[in-house]
Amino acid sequence: MHDGSGRIIVRGLSKSYGPVHAVRDLHFTVEPGTVTGFLGPNGSGKTTTLRMILGLVTPTAGTATINGLPFHQLPNPASVIGAVLDAQSFHPGRTAQNHLRCYAAAMNVPDEQADRALELVGLTPAAKRKPSGFSLGMRQRLALATALLADPQVLVLDEPANGLDPEGIAWLRNFLKAFAASGRTVLMSSHFLREIEHTVDQLVVISRGQCVYDGSIDQLRAQQQSRALVQAADPGALAAKLQESGFRVESLPDGRLAVLGA
Ligand code: ADP
């Protein structure tokens, strides 16, 4: 059933490429009105997951739904979900405004809405310029404007902060927070917590295709703050004792123990 909420639900999502398990049994929910960061190092499975949500890659197992439906069953996908996946290349002969109007025409969206998308990303003053002369930040904003053309409920952005300077990151943060504050949904990936930590409400952390954290950014900060590093003559015995007492303990490569909740 189409539930109209803009909620993304991922259940048991997996993708293998031959022997490579790119994504393994992922479960998470992205709530409307929030910005969710999908964090993990390069090669951890972020792009594959986003592509499965967008119906571009077929899962080996599991499901991803938006508004309760898989992407391909959405009645009008463009008005539900907008995405920026790759660093986009733009037609060398077209101005920013023409680029957007061409996409708009292909999507049956009126020119005024294309101009509005340009305004939303702050590019109206550059409307008559060609993107070939744009900074990386401006090109990212033009790509974002393309994703906003049909006024979607949900934005999915693969590494949108990659390569941006602090000013560009601050602009993106304000934009995405305002977008989410209007009740819509943002899912953005990053391989660098610092790029997104002030933007996201929720964080899903992925490592080697598996979810290793799913919760609020505040909770994660609290956990990190209450993490104590302990050196012991017999780390194994101490770890067992601490675990008996209800602490979560991780062994670090240097032999120390990281004690969570201490
Ligand atoms: P991330 O976006 O986190 O960098 P990816 O989803 O791109 O990670 O890749 C996850 C893993 O899947 C990597 O080991 C990558 O090499 C592999 N992979 C991704 N796409 C393909 C593909 N089309 N064919 C084979 N392996 C792939």
UniProtKB/TrEMBL annotation:
MF GO annotations: ATP binding; ATP hydrolysis activity
Protein keywords: ATP-binding, Nucleotide-binding, Transport
Domain ABC transporter: 8-233
Signal peptide interval: none
Record carries keyword Nucleotide-binding: yes
Family: Belongs to the ABC transporter superfamily.
Listed name of the protein: ABC-2 type transport system ATP-binding protein
Portion of the full sequence shown: 1 to 262 of 331
